[in-house]
Amino acid sequence: MLPPAFRLMRLPALPETAHDQACALAERDDEAAGTLVVGIRSGLVEAAVVLAPEEPLSIARHAGLVGLTALAETVGSHAPPDKPLTLDAGGTLFFDRARLGGGRLAWPHACPDAAVPDWMVFSWMLIASKREAGDPGHTPDSTSLEEEGFEAGAEALVESFARHLLRGLSLWAEDGPAAAAARARDVLDADPTALRLDGAGWFDPARGGPRL
Question: Is this prediction's pTM over 0.90?
Answer without folding.
Answer: yes
